[in-house]
Amino acid sequence: xxxxxxxxxxxxxxxxxxxxxxxxxxxxxxxxxxxxxxxxxxxxxxxxxxxxxxxxxxxxxxxxxxxxxxxxxxxxxxxxxxxxxxxxxxxxxxxxxxxxxxxxxxxxxxxxxxxxxxxxxxxxxxxxxxxxxxxxxxxxxxxxxxxxxxxxxxxxxxxxxxxxxxxxxxxxxxxxxxxxxxxxxxxxxxxxxxxxxxxxxxxxxxxxxxxxxxxxxxxxxxxxxxxxxxxxxxxxxxxxxxxxxxx
Length: 247
Ligand code: NDP
Known about the structure:
By secondary structure, this protein is of the alpha/beta class. Helices cover 41% and strands 13% of the residues. It is built from 7 helices and 7 strands, in the order βαβαβαβαβαβααβ. The chain has a 7-stranded parallel beta sheet with strand order 3-2-1-4-5-6-7, sandwiched between helices. The structure holds NADPH dihydro-nicotinamide-adenine-dinucleotide phosphate. This is YciK family oxidoreductase.
């Protein structure tokens, strides 16, 4: 099963992979793991100091020199994404992987009392930003021999749950976006598009969402990297349109 996938040490050698939300939690672990398997990673996130810390960890480990992109997905524009794509085209020429990992938990409360502003922010970060980034990065992904786009879902993106509001709706939208894009690209390109549901993982988002849990009862981000590696490497060429569980 992809969950206990054992990656070759050089699985991602020569590949360039962009990770959103790379400064913390699962995104940070994925960026580090991809770099450890040979990839040049592009670290995208909103908090510069966190991205710099990951950048330094990668450099200190003597891995391929990463790139750093400070971008707030809550306010990101079409122009910013176009500019990002142009910069990456100049520096790398193509993109082998795109991990949409960043997301916002938002408020968990009944729809009856939810606020429109909080709703819009979650949908903006978790859905709209994925669209605008993907839209402008597609040409770079098309330019790679066999690129992989990976979205991040959740259990509440497959079955709705009371009080999970915009977050749950955004994860259903993410599953839908993955399916639409996968279907569009299936016969016309070598890009595969899939989804990962990480499952309960010990990160700051998890600790906020489940304050009563003992954090260390959940696996750490490093423990769930099998599927993250599998989907970025050439062992899963041709696999598309699937929503995986990381645990
Ligand atoms: P974290 O909150 O630890 O990390 C989320 C990352 O997204 C952070 O790096 C954060 O940046 C970034 N981010 C949030 N808002 C923005 C923004 N406006 N612009 C740019 N970056 C932003 O969460 P996890 O690592 O737990 O979550 C990773 C993914 O996994 C998410 O999509 C989440 O929904 C999903 N998931 C997680 C589960 C879990 O148990 N942990 C379970 C199911 C799904 P910053 O650090 O600067 O705030």
